[in-house]
């Protein structure tokens, strides 16, 4: 692993004050070792399936073996006769409770258990509660279901054909498989630019269906206490507060009687944002049996039925001058939303933030139109670290810029440099209405090119091509759109996208910070302690970070879309500043001076002009909770709470360059090198930032080369296990070479932009661009993911084919 | 967690006891060694044996020895053991080529040669390796042991000459002076089933021509050796022309089916491409062997 750190040329990482700390143990920002790691490394993490409650029963879900069928009958007699079975729940039972259907996160409904039809393979049909997991699974085979097969809609391109079977005949007035039409930008202005452009390139670009595939699958334990009517719900949730509110709305249990606990989470990547039928069924099971009920899905259930990602068929067009000035981008998208529109995205954005497809370029015009359709496939759509469809947008524009480079016979890196939004244009309003907060793209691009030795690689490539060898260099430059809200524009089912933090400094000067966001492995317990440490001068090890329990944390919308640092991070910093301001008043009282006569250094207020006289945060905390006569209006604690409503999104960016070698005889792609230069604004813990980037880069190589959820003509899922759904291993990825620039967000309290999804967004186009570049001698300008050996070989034969 | 259907479990302490248990529990009993094929199938409930007979304690089946003109490998020998054996790599480099691309280290630490051959998965690598090395397997049954040539042992996908009441105990490879061998596989990702693979073994004559040749294919729908390809090589001077002819014939002999790993034309192309590659390597290795004593 190499890290580029050319400090002379670069804005610097904020270093801790050496007078206050050991450089290896910074009080504030820096490479603090992860506070949570000792328990993970020692096997003391506590994941959902580790939790065992007294008297707990186990649930299992019977799922549809077919993609589309009328449900004729469900006979549970034999299953109920199983000696270890305590309850069997069917869709009919739920209808009686008005729970057969639940609202999705996109103003649609989803069947909790099928009542009328099954609409995708793997759909929930019945729920068994038994003494143990084995018996529950065994009893599923004793349920007799009669299906009457219906023709499935598998190909999204055929979903709107006249006469196509109507999947959602449960919806009043629904006569086809249309979900929504949505557009952004100015169609007329864009068409006008295209009409006068020297050069127009066009390509169909497919981002196939993939799956977040977290190592820990989804699950829940419901513990309903009937006397007081209290529900404690342990869940694999990235958004415990939002889940609690939704449960209150759906299940009719008052919100103050519901406690949602999200324990250690073994990866989420967006897969654990939604509320799955299994969670609701665990609650029903607990109410019916009067005992706690655990339900944990298996790997196949996770891959076949939970939120997939992508599935966008995009027609991209770019208009440019002959000299390589990009004028406009236009795209039409067919979005496969599966059987229920259950994507997790802000209400006003049915295609997420896809309208950021203008990328990092200064355009004259842009327009997109997106049509969503139902198919007989699992619901979901926004997941897998995608920043609400920025992944699809960046892939489209970065692929299309390479297509344009091929058309103009220009170097793709030079073409990008020629078209970047210039630093003086920020804040930059793009043609679809986003205001990019800050950016300085060229230095990041130049750094990536220098680091990888771009010119030398191009020379090497030319030599290899002469020898018949296939080497490719792929460039991508992305701008992310993360940290949603602001809440006035962005909500999920009516809940504004803001997040909270509460800070308490204990009498001894130790502190606790409580968050509404929920870590899934990305190091919140460290990062958020460091934000507080930076603001108040309390060492990170003296700060406890509490999250994942609605009884013990402030309300907020949770962790996805790279929101945690931009939103809750802002809340922590502002709460810390409230504490600091209050500490000043108390310190003044303790020092018998005026607050305005005090100055701050990290961890301490002191008398201006006499630095020896002052009070540390610990002394002030003891004073606040002790016997100091407090000033008028100051109460006896050192606590503060903030709900942070971001004024705008943040726009991290980066330059990625990938080098591949393709075996001309087999089509096998080998990723030789990958340089990633990222700019996420202020870097709180560079080690954690790099870890996030490494993970995202591996995701990107996986999607580019192998990941794919396919279906056969009957709608059978062909990616239902790790034998068929391939995720990359250490063998398929190179040693990552990372670098950074720092362009802080001007509107964020600490200038941080978020890093969780940058690499997942930015890396797939770099890999695919490299593969296509390697295949240039065959006249190839585009091939779709996944670039498996067979698909690359087909492209070499002049037959590149879309995956769907 | 994926949970299998109910089953009973018993641990054998000797070959004799394993055979008795097989006899006692009949058709619905399965032997388990490494378990890397059986357990996933059980977890998916595609396999539902009533009894699992664990043979992992049968140390007498875990050995790698050269005995006369034979390399004898106990059926319970782990993939990792074969990969660790320098002698195996020296005598039969094809075995190391194949073992390096069988799954991943975790699987190789548990999976066994006997399990691989007995499972007879069409994408399984060691069947092709044993085919081209003209290995024999030793099968123990109620009436004692019998030796079966690979050509008769492997009867098709998931089918072998080993009966329900029998146990594969040993694999024997004839050691051939001057033999070169090689194996190459294309997979979408490490640990995935082969898209396709090929193996070859050759012996060169004193004049440098090919005296003996064997070519085998994995996951390409060919049962046994690609005999036409081998016949076309014998007597030829090794070189691209001969290898290309062999590749073409191997491709013709293949009968691949389309699946998620690739279409038929690609797989048939790989039969050709990989045959040429393994022939190149096998001949180079044979040449290096014959070159040393000859000076």
Automatic annotation (TrEMBL), chain A:
Pfam families linked: Ald_Xan_dh_C, MoCoBD_1, MoCoBD_2
Aldehyde oxidase/xanthine dehydrogenase a/b hammerhead domain mapped to chain residues: 42-151
Keywords: Molybdenum, Oxidoreductase
Single Gene Ontology MF annotation: copper ion binding
SUPFAM superfamilies on file: CO dehydrogenase molybdoprotein N-domain-like (SSF54665), Molybdenum cofactor-binding domain (SSF56003)
Cofactor: Mo-molybdopterin cytosine dinucleotide
Superkingdom of origin organism: Bacteria
SMART domains reported for this sequence: Ald_Xan_dh_C
Entry keyword Oxidoreductase: yes
Stretches the record annotates as Disordered: 1-34
Protein name: Carbon monoxide dehydrogenase, large subunit apoprotein
Species annotation: Trujillonella endophytica
Organismal lineage: Bacteria, Bacillati, Actinomycetota, Actinomycetes, Geodermatophilales
UniProtKB/TrEMBL annotation, chain B:
Pfam families in the cross-refs: CO_deh_flav_C, FAD_binding_5
Domain FAD-binding PCMH-type: 2-178
UniProt keywords, alphabetically: FAD, Flavoprotein, Oxidoreductase
Keyword Calcium: no
PROSITE patterns found in the cross-reference section: FAD_PCMH (PS51387)
Molecular functions (GO terms): FAD binding; oxidoreductase activity
RNA-binding keyword on record: no
InterPro entries, per the entry: CO_DH_flav_C, CO_DH_flav_C_dom_sf, Diverse_Substr_Oxidored, FAD-bd_PCMH, FAD-bd_PCMH-like_sf, FAD-bd_PCMH_sub1, FAD-bd_PCMH_sub2, Mopterin_DH_FAD-bd
SUPFAM superfamilies (UniProt xref): CO dehydrogenase flavoprotein C-terminal domain-like, FAD-binding/transporter-associated domain-like
Alphabetized PANTHER family for the sequence: XANTHINE DEHYDROGENASE SUBUNIT C-RELATED (PTHR42659:SF2)
Name assigned to this protein: Carbon-monoxide dehydrogenase medium subunit
Source organism of the structure: Trujillonella endophytica
Origin organism lineage: Bacteria, Bacillati, Actinomycetota, Actinomycetes, Geodermatophilales
């Amino acid at each position: 692993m190499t890290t580029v750190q050319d400090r002379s040329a670069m804005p610097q990482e904020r270093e801790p004050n050496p007078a206050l700390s050991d450089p290896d143990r910074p009080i504030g920002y820096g490479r603090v070792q992860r506070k949570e790691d000792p328990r993970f490394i020692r096997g003391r993490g506590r994941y959902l399936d580790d939790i065992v409650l007294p008297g707990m029963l186990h649930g299992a879900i019977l799922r549809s073996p077919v993609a589309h069928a009328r449900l004729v009958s469900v006979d549970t007699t034999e299953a109920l006769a199983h000696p270890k079975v305590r309850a069997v729940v069917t869709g009919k039972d739920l209808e009686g409770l008005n729970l057969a259907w639940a609202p999705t996160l996109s103003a649609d409904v989803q069947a909790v258990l099928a009542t009328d039809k099954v609409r995708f393979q793997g759909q929930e049909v019945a729920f068994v509660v038994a003494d143990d997991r084995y018996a529950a699974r065994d009893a599923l085979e004793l349920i007799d279901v009669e299906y009457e097969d219906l023709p499935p809609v598998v190909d999204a391109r055929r979903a709107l054909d006249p006469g196509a079977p109507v999947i959602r005949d449960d919806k009043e007035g629904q006569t086809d498989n249309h979900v929504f039409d949505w557009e952004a930008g100015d169609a007329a202005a864009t068409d006008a630019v295209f009409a006068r452009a020297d050069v127009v390139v066009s390509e169909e670009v497919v981002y196939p269906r993939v799956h977040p595939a977290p190592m820990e699958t989804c699950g829940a334990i419901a513990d309903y206490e009937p006397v007081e009517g209290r529900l404690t719900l342990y869940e694999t949730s990235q958004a415990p507060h939002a889940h609690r509110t939704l449960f209150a709305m759906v299940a009719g249990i008052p919100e103050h009687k519901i406690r949602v606990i999200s324990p250690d989470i073994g990866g989420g990547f967006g897969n654990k944002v939604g509320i799955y039928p299994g969670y609701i069924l665990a609650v029903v099971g607990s109410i019916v049996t009067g005992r706690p009920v655990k339900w944990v899905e298996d790997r196949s259930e996770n891959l076949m039925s939970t939120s997939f990602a992508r599935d966008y068929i995009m027609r991209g067009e770019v208009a440019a001058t002959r000299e390589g000035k990009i004028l406009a981008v236009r795209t039409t998208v067919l979005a496969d939303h599966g059987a229920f529109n259950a994507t997790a995205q802000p209400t006003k954005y049915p295609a997420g933030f896809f309208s950021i497809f203008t990328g990092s370029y200064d355009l004259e015009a842009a327009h997109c139109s997106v049509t969503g359709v139902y198919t007989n496939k699992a619901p979901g759509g926004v997941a897998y670290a995608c920043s609400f469809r920025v992944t699809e947008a960046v892939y489209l524009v970065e692929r299309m810029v390479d297509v344009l480079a091929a058309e103009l016979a220009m170097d793709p890196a030079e073409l990008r440099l020629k078209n970047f939004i210039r630093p003086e244009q920020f804040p930059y309003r793009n043609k679809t209405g986003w205001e990019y907060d800050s950016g300085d793209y060229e230095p990041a691009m130049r750094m990536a090119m220098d680091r990888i030795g771009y010119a030398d690689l191009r020379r090497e490539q030319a030599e290899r091509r002469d020898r018949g060898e296939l080497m490719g260099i792929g460039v991508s430059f992305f701008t992310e759109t993360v940290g949603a809200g602001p809440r006035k524009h962005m909500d999920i089912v009516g809940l504004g996208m803001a997040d909270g933090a509460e800070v308490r400094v204990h009498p001894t000067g130790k502190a606790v910070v409580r968050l509404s966001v929920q870590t899934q492995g990305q190091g919140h317990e460290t990062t958020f302690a460091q934000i507080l440490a930076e603001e108040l001068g309390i060492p990170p090890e003296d700060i406890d970070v509490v999250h994942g329990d609605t009884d013990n944390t402030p309300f907020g919308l949770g962790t996805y879309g790279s929101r945690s640092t931009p939103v809750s991070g802002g809340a922590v910093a502002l709460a810390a500043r409230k504490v600091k301001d209050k500490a000043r008043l108390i310190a003044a009282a303790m020092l018998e001076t005026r607050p305005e006569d005090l100055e701050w250094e990290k961890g301490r207020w002191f008398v201006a002009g006499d630095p020896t006289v002052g009070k540390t945060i610990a002394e002030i905390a003891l004073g606040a909770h002790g016997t100091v006569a407090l000033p008028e209006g100051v109460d006896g604690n050192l606590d503060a709470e903030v709900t942070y409503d971001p004024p705008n999104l943040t726009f991290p960016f980066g330059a990625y360059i990938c080098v591949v070698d393709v075996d001309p005889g087999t089509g096998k792609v080998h990723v030789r090198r990958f340089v990633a230069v990222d700019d996420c604004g202020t870097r709180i813990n560079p080690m954690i930032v790099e870890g996030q980037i490494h993970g995202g880069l591996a995701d990107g190589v996986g999607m580019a080369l192998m990941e794919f959820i396919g279906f056969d003509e009957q709608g059978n899922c062909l990616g239902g296990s790790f034998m068929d759904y391939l995720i990359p291993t250490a063998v398929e990825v190179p040693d990552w070479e990372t670098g950074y620039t720092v362009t802080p967000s001007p509107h964020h309290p600490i200038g941080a932009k978020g890093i969780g999804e940058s690499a997942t967004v930015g890396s797939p186009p770099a890999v695919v661009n490299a593969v296509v570049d390697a295949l240039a001698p065959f006249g190839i300008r585009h091939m779709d993911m996944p670039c498996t050996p067979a698909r690359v070989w087909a492209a070499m034969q002049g037959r590149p084919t879309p995956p769907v | 967690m994926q949970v299998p259907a109910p089953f009973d479990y018993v641990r054998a302490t000797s070959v004799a006891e394993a055979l008795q248990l097989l006899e006692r529990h009949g058709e619905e009993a399965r032997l388990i060694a490494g378990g890397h094929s059986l357990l996933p199938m059980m977890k998916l409930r595609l396999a539902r044996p009533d009894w699992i007979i664990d043979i992992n304690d049968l140390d007498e089946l875990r050995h790698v020895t050269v005995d006369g003109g034979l390399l004898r490998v106990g059926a319970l020998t782990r993939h990792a053991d074969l990969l660790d054996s320098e002698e195996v790599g020296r005598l039969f480099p094809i075995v190391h080529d194949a073992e390096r691309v069988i799954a991943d280290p975790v699987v190789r630490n548990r999976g066994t040669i006997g399990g691989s051959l007995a499972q007879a998965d069409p994408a399984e690598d060691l069947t092709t390796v044993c085919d081209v090395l003209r290995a024999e397997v030793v099968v123990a049954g109620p009436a004692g042991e019998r030796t079966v040539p690979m050509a008769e042992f492997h009867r098709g996908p998931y089918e072998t000459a080993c009966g329900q009441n029998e146990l594969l105990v040993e694999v024997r490879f004839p050691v051939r002076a001057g033999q070169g061998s090689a194996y190459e596989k294309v997979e979408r990702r490490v640990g995935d089933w082969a898209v396709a693979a090929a193996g070859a073994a050759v012996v060169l004559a004193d004049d440098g021509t090919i005296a003996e040749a064997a070519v085998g294919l994995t996951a390409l729908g060919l049962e046994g050796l690609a005999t036409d390809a081998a016949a076309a090589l014998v007597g030829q001077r090794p070189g691209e022309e001969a290898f290309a002819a062999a590749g073409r014939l191997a491709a013709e002999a293949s009968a691949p089916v389309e699946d998620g790993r690739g279409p038929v034309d690609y797989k048939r192309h790989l039969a050709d491409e990989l045959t040429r590659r393994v022939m190149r390597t096998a001949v180079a290795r044979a040449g290096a062997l014959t070159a040393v004593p000859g000076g």
